[in-house]
User: What shape does this take?
Amino acid sequence: MKRPSADHDAKDSSKVPRSCAPLPTPTADAQQLARLLEVIESEVLPKTAQGVKEGNKVFGAAVLRDVEGYPTLIAETNHEILCPLYHGEVYTIKKLSDLPPEQRGKPEESLFLSTHEPCCMCVSAIVWAGYKKIIYLFPYESTRDQGIPHDLQIMHELWAVERYQACNKFCASAGIPDLIEALPEKARAPLKEQVARITARYAELSQKYHQELVREVGELGEHLGLQLKRCPRSRTERAFPVPASAKLARLRTLQTSASGCDGFRFQGMSCSADRSVILWDLQVAEPLQKFRGHPGSVWCMDVDWSGRRMVTGSGPGDNSIMVWDFKDGFVESVITGHEGSVWAVAVDWDCAHKALEASKGIGLQPKQQGEEDGSPSPRAPSHTSHASHATGQPDSQTGEAEGRRARKRWVKRRRR
Assistant: This one.
């Protein structure tokens, strides 16, 4: 069966007949609205402030019993760092579901309070969870002005509609600003002051979220600029221009090294909450290769530039460590054991190199006759290199230069 065209979808999307009458628009008096704003300000906002520090967005939600006083069942905030689906509303439903049944309340007897108008995913989750009554503080336009336009964009691009039906068969939603405007004029002033105070706090958190995102990448650029100056084979001293793709990837860690210099190309490696690791050409600010393997966010890594290997650690949903050969782009081994996120990894690469050299016979020779009685004997280039550096007398055959050549031979073998 042929699918209708996009134009057909857009033209007919607003003409789908309703199966029944929509639910009535939610209403609230001044006292009830003051309580809703109090929940946002005193219960949701503190969790959101902590969430923003961890890299999450500013969206939060709460579920209240729809009775006098609106007692709170649960209040939560966005946890996208744990899972990209954990928007504030979805995470609130998830955490409420973790409670014993007697503490959850019945969805049809509850009010779902959201700090921001729920996105298409969240409003669907609210409906599927059985909630009928939704009240929010900030509409889509405010969310857009706070620097997050995705809610409206997805609605426009996927379904060619301005927004979902506020009141429909499954749920009815209303914004607190509209509910305030419906009150007598004398009752509006204190509520508007409360809204202004909360709005200022969310603007501050939103700015902090975006500044943190820019700061992470900006400091990364400054760091790379310094590294470029230190790189003796680089001809540039310009700062690193951060590409848009780096901002979207939400870089968590980046490692660079003077040994990452390859001619006039300076390389770095970054890991991200998007579950990928990227090898960058920092000279031109472009990705060279992307590695995927972790099912969870990649939180940390340690890179062996000379051996072209790395070790990565991941977060929730994975909690594993992976050893990579990033020259050929495959995972050598997966190590499990942590019950929580792996926040840091550190590898003794020098020891790893020596062990590999020993296994391949590089840099090691059998004991020579006369060694025990103190007579001179040939020594491995790696050991000789260190000794020559100590004495300041490199030798053309067994000194520092030979040590470097032996090391290069080992790297070539490793790369094959």
User: Anything to note?
Assistant: The first helix runs from residue 6 to 12. The radius of gyration is 30 Å.
